[in-house]
């Protein structure tokens, strides 16, 4: 199994809603990532978890709250988002973080629309 | 700071023609370079990386440190090569930074 699975595939939420994006991998990877991709733009790193601890937060607004309950799961909790937060949110994983030759595997993404 | 530049947003070639997708990078240390591909309605996936020096689906890329380039090449384009291609770099703090991407369109 070399897949990263993300749910839901599509999410529409209001600016006052609270929702979560979920990500799962069963490759035994100890590094997991959240990326944000706007239309026709490259993915931009948001967060990195290494061994279930937050290693990198790329100055992401607090309305995005990541959580890593265990080594296979990664969540992104969303609250009070703005319309400009509408994007494709990509989860990814790799065996470890920071090692040369690390291959990062991406999920299909969750399309988020904030109305 | 690390940066990846892909100067072409769109590259259109005929089937059977050679392909070269350009990638230049800026990084003061020793970077790791990658090419990722995203086919229509599919996930982003690794195509190749410079440390492997391998050829995948007929594509190759050579790291040229003098020119700070990592261009992707294929001698004969196929229709199924049509996709979005991203050059990416891992440098500072092992963070993966993507270029803006080049859409390759192979026509008959």
Give an account of the 3D structure:
Chain A has 115 residues and is mainly beta. Chain A is built from no helices and eleven strands. In chain A, strands 2, 4, 5, 6, 9, 10 and 11 form a seven-stranded mixed β-sheet that branches. Chain B has 108 residues and is mainly β. Chain B has strands at 3-5, 10-14, 19-21, 24-26, 32-38, 45-49, 60-61, 72-74, 83-90, 96-98, 102-107. In chain B, a hairpin with a 5-residue loop joins β9 and β10. Chains A and B meet through β5 and β10 of A and β6 and β10 of B.
Label the structural class of chain B: mainly beta
Mean pLDDT of chain B: 91
Gap from first CA to last CA of chain A: 36 Å
Shape of chain A: globular
Give the strand tally of chain A: 11
Mind summarizing the main beta sheet of chain B? 6 strands, mixed
Class per helix and strand makeup of chain A: mainly beta
Give helix % range of chain A.
under 10%
Q: Measured on Cα atoms, how large is the radius of gyration of chain A? A: 13 Å
Please count the beta strands of chain B (DSSP E, at least 2 residues each). 11
Which regions of chain B are unreliable across 5 or more consecutive residues at pLDDT < 50?
A: none
**H and E string of chain A:** EEEEEEEEEEE
Assembly level = heterodimer
Summary of the model, kept short:
Chain A is mainly β.
What are the SSEs and their pairings?
The complex is a heterodimer of chains A (115) and B (108).
Chain A: E1 4-7, E2 10-13, E3 18-25, E4 31-37, E5 44-50, E6 53-57, E7 64-70, E8 73-79, E9 87-94, E10 105-106, E11 110-114
Parallel strand pairs in A: 2-11
Antiparallel strand pairs in A: 1-3, 3-8, 4-5, 4-9, 5-6, 7-8, 9-10, 9-11
Chain B: E1 3-5, E2 10-14, E3 19-21, E4 24-26, E5 32-38, E6 45-49, E7 60-61, E8 72-74, E9 83-90, E10 96-98, E11 102-107
Parallel strand pairs in B: 2-11
Antiparallel strand pairs in B: 1-4, 3-8, 5-6, 5-9, 7-8, 9-10, 9-11
